[in-house]
């Protein structure tokens, strides 16, 4: 673990807890899906916790993020509550999007989370637009755009990087390179280095170990401060790994990645175990305290699942609520032809 910035015990504790909370959330979401209690599809964030937590810990509630199809970790790290998240996954009325978004479309505006997006690369324009609006309105919030390595194949990224660099927008493009796009290794589809692509637009680019929460946090803190001074945009490539298959039902992963590779990331490179060990070595937390935190969070997640399972579905009268910008807009859009 690298720790070049001064954190206090509270900071360390919050970062550790947030990583454990993401893992606990995903373990429960996985179980819900496997026991056929959850509709739709979901993509687990387990293994990538240090990225979301290291980055979001450097942001305020006013700072914005945009997220991806693998976005539960971003939501939790940016302050979302378990109950409303599980309700959203289960299509319940108390979900963040009143149950209409599901796993891949959670937004939480109260914490600056502009939303996840099932369209790979889809949030790049939204993040850049948010940064453009901040600049024009003289607001000093920063936007972090999370996306995967596969999304760097989308033409939109090159369009928004050009604009962001020209107009010096306060946006950080954070690429979570987990080594795979669905079932294909990144090195089989991406020529050259990702940082060089950002540098071609004159954007300062960085690579960081995405399993080291302190390294991620340290770098992001510096870049957020620089963004606020008008020195953005920036690009960060975070090397990480997803523990599950591409999605929860992906049973083919034995064919595209080896068990040895998986085992190495899940043991010696695990971001939570390593941070826990470091906290113990530095005498910040004892082994017993770490176990107590884990148990407490596990219980919190299980109680939230129970709550969501028993929560009501939205009333059918809400079926077209929040689907369009407004009923008048919807009628215009439909040419007034709604019966
Ligand atoms: C525009 C678009 N093309 C294809 C897909 C299908 N798809 C969903 S996830 C994914 C791979 C994304 O890989 P990456 O960006 O590396 O994210 P990761 O799944 O590894 O987190 C693809 C191709 C999609 N959802 N949207
Ligand atoms: Mg990927």
Automatic annotation (TrEMBL):
Q: Does the keyword Oxidoreductase apply?
A: yes
Q: Which InterPro entries match?
A: DH_E1, PDH_E1_Alpha_Subunit, THDP-binding
Cited Pfam families: E1_dh
As cofactor, the record names: thiamine diphosphate
Record-annotated Dehydrogenase E1 component domain positions: 18-315
Which reaction is recorded as catalysed by this protein? N(6)-[(R)-lipoyl]-L-lysyl-[protein] + pyruvate + H(+) = N(6)-[(R)-S(8)-acetyldihydrolipoyl]-L-lysyl-[protein] + CO2
Keywords of the record: Oxidoreductase, Pyruvate, Thiamine pyrophosphate
Q: Which GO terms describe its molecular function?
A: pyruvate dehydrogenase (acetyl-transferring) activity
Q: Name one GO biological process term.
A: pyruvate decarboxylation to acetyl-CoA
**What exactly does this protein do?**
The pyruvate dehydrogenase complex catalyzes the overall conversion of pyruvate to acetyl-CoA and CO(2). It contains multiple copies of three enzymatic components: pyruvate dehydrogenase (E1), dihydrolipoamide acetyltransferase (E2) and lipoamide dehydrogenase (E3).
Any idea what this protein is called? Pyruvate dehydrogenase E1 component alpha subunit
To which species is this protein native?
Roseibium hamelinense
Q: Species lineage, top-down?
A: Bacteria, Pseudomonadati, Pseudomonadota, Alphaproteobacteria, Hyphomicrobiales
């Amino acid at each position: 673990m690298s720790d070049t910035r001064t954190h206090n015990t509270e900071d360390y504790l919050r970062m550790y807890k947030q990583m454990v909370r993401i893992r606990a959330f995903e373990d429960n979401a996985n179980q819900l899906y496997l026991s056929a209690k959850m509709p739709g599809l979901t993509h687990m964030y387990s293994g990538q916790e240090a990225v979301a937590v290291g980055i979001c810990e450097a942001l305020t509630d006013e700072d914005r993020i945009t997220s991806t199809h693998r976005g539960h970790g971003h939501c939790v790290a940016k302050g979302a509550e378990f109950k409303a998240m599980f309700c959203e996954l289960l299509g319940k009325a108390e979900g963040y999007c009143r149950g209409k978004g599901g796993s891949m479309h959670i937004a939480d505006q109260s914490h600056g989370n502009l939303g996840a997006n099932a369209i790979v690369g889809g949030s790049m324009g939204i993040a850049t637009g948010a940064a453009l609006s901040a600049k024009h309105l003289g607001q000093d919030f920063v936007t972090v755009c999370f996306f995967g390595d596969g999304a760097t194949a989308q033409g939109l990224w090159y369009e928004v990087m050009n604009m962001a660099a020209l107009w010096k927008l306060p946006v950080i493009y954070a690429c979570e390179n987990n080594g795979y796009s669905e079932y294909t290794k990144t090195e089989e589809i991406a020529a050259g280095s990702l940082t060089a692509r950002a540098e071609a637009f004159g954007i300062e680019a960085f690579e960081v170990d995405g399993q080291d929460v302190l390294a991620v946090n340290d770098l992001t803190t510096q870049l957020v401060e620089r963004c606020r001074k008008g020195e953005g945009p920036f690009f960060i490539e975070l090397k990480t790994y997803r523990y599950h298959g591409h999605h929860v039902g992906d049973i083919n992963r034995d064919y595209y990645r080896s068990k040895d590779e998986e085992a190495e990331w899940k043991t010696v490179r695990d971001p939570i175990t390593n941070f826990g060990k470091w906290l113990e070595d530095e005498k910040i937390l004892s082994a017993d305290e770490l176990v107590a935190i884990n148990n407490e969070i596990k219980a919190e997640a299980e109680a939230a699942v129970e709550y969501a399972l028993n929560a009501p579905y939205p009333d059918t009268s809400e079926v077209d609520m929040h689907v369009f910008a407004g009923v008048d807009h919807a009628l215009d859009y439909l040419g007034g032809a709604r019966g």
